[in-house]
Fold each of these.
Amino acid sequence: MNHQKPAAPVLGGGGFLRIRLDLSYDGGPFSGWALQPGRRTVQGALEEALELLVRRPLRVTVAGRTDAGVHARGQVVHLDLAESEWHGMARGQELDPAVAMTRRLGGALNRVLGDLTGAVQVRRITPAPPGFDARFSALWRRYSYRIADGPALWDPLERAFTLWHKSPLDVSLLNEGGSKLLGLQNFLSFCKPREGATTIRELQRFEFARAEDGAIVATVQADAFCHNMVRALIGSALYVGEGAVEPGWLYERLLAQKRDAKSVLAAPHPLVFEEVAYPSDSDLLARAELTRARREH
């Protein structure tokens, strides 16, 4: 039995406690993160499992929504629980509610997932600091994308999360083209716009490197991403890496501010949501308010 003193949760609005969940998942069998009627989604599975625990419907807020087939190692969500629900997780035992909830939610998820048992893993559950918002408090999100450029690198055991690209790619050309897109830009040419949402983002990293096994791993980091942005960036960069277009073509695409026949999405299965970063606890609320203001204009 764990006699560790429970962490002190922070009271949120209306006497509720904000709880942070750190998740990993294999996105292959899911129709993306977000709820969709009649489709199996990661959010749907998680919320169904949470309802088994607290006996009421719950909604979670995610750091970054992922498309169908996209994976996550470092996804973060938050939810709000009544104080009684939080402390009730231990079922009367002298157990930290966070430890108890992690165990119980893992079991509930496996019940919900059935044949997909293990596809969604709860890595950590903690009471969130004041002002924490999984989405709006984030400083940046980081994705990786794995590419095997040539049949000699095609490993059948890694095909589920690697793009098999037929022709060789020049990493130096990829990095030269990608570097021209860094900074605060309007990424309309590389996004599927949502009504009322901005396509202005700060791209902080867009770089490519060879892994030890010879595959290319792309790192894409931004303050936030609009719909399909990472896959559109990778899909366009492949033209540069092949030598089909000059590295400056990516910047020309950016300036064009339009989506057309040249707007190609890379396959989703090699894309992994790796990490999301947050400021210090004292800056969480200010960051959330600043982000909301930017997204609304």
Amino acid sequence: MSIDSINKAKTKKTGSGSNALSILNAGQVENSSDHSRKPIHIAMFSGGASSAYVAYYIVQKYGKENCVLFFTDTLWEDIDNYRFMDEVAEYIGLDITTRIDGRTPEEVFHDIRFLGNSRMAKCSEELKVRQTLIFLEELRDEHNLEPILYFGIGPHESHRAINLQNFYEHNPIEPIATRFPMIETFTEDLDTKKIIRDEWKIALPRMYGLGFSHANCAGRCVRGGLGHYALLYKVWPNQYMEQEAMEERFREKFNKDVSILKRNSKAFTLREYRELMDKDGIEKYLSEKDDTIPCVCSYS
């Protein structure tokens, strides 16, 4: 199958800056131990501005015939993310290659009997990481192509880049090379959102304008943290209530005192949080900090 054919297969369901750069450069692997494979440049497309710009960059550098725009769909994405991704794909001249496990995050939680929370998100492992690894091995085994992965991670997230590099060096059957152009190539302060909005004339995903730090899972990201869920309740109360109902279904079915959020290292349900916000006012909790990290679906 040609690279063009891969790109046209839109959906297949398969059941601190310079210091970080030196670490990344030191750890870079060769494209493959099998040099007979042709390199294929994979833009890991999250639906965000930085990953969109990285996709544009590799197409300009290597040609669209040598690139793939890759997206893993959790089936919880905001509808405007799809609009944004389609417009970006049209602008850079690549179809989106999408992989879908077929389950929602809630279905994953029930299958593994573990509720995703602010410290651990098995939904990401199942719906994104696993689907990515399957796709990459198919490129090697079925098409004799050697993937090189490109991520839209900036210097402020350099710890993620190091983790990603380590993951793809050790978890696939053979190491897979990773690249981070926002750290390694663009040394100036590149405003990707401004470029996309003003030069490409593409409206950014609406969740940016609503105040969310990322657009994963339409605000229902289980690793979002307290402030994130306060914002979700303010902006999309129905989405919040859906998450609350999901949490209650899990607690009742498995008879476990578990929750998506934590407070003082203890279970803190979305119902309890909503009642607190209703009593005190949402504004008080919009900047609430905790020891969680935002969901980044780290390895895809």
Amino acid sequence: MSQESRTNADVTLTEYTEDGKLVRKIRSFVRREGRLTKGQQQALENNWSNMGIDFNKQPLNWTEVYGREGHVVLEIGFGMGASLVEMAKNAPEKNFIGIEVHSPGVGACLMAAEAEDLTNLRVMCHDAVEVFEHMIPDGSLDTVQLFFPDPWHKARHHKRRIVQPAFVEMVRKKLKIGGIFHMATDWENYAEHMVDVMKAAPGYENTAQDGDYIPRPEERPLTKFEARGHRLGHGVWDMKFARTE
């Protein structure tokens, strides 16, 4: 799959010693501010007040954020936002929120959301770990999505992969009991890494009925890059793990 399809899995990973002392922080993403197009800038200016959420160290109240009750689906690193907007359009009864560090991607997402006249989508432009730590209430999410994060395919860079034990524990705490952590990747080695991490993580159960992976769920849109990958014989692996405790 083209590198253009990569989402910016926007987290700062932390390493600790056995006695809990912080060793160092490792960014799992490369910050690329890029240049906003006129349309992206205009979309940010026009829609941030009703769809954007600024970072602050106060927990969100989802009913206040959306003005209604509803299942909350959070996507980490939504890229340019095309699939997130499509999902929000196709499931108007659900409340969607996307976190992305790449401001042109946020602008593009808001452009598409405005064109579809969506009211059930919110976006943030910040490091997801800090958002999770300070703003996402424990046990409040129905689904967390992580689609096509940077695979950091060189072995020496594997420590930068977003799916690590501390990260999946962070996600677990924010999911409701029975809530779903849905991952997808087009790198088989990363898929195997994801499964290994999730199998070792407490409080999760793989929802796959046959093997470790599931067929692409209907709610995850088929991107043009993924479709091209299929034509070229490239695989894509989807995984859904449910919080059990």
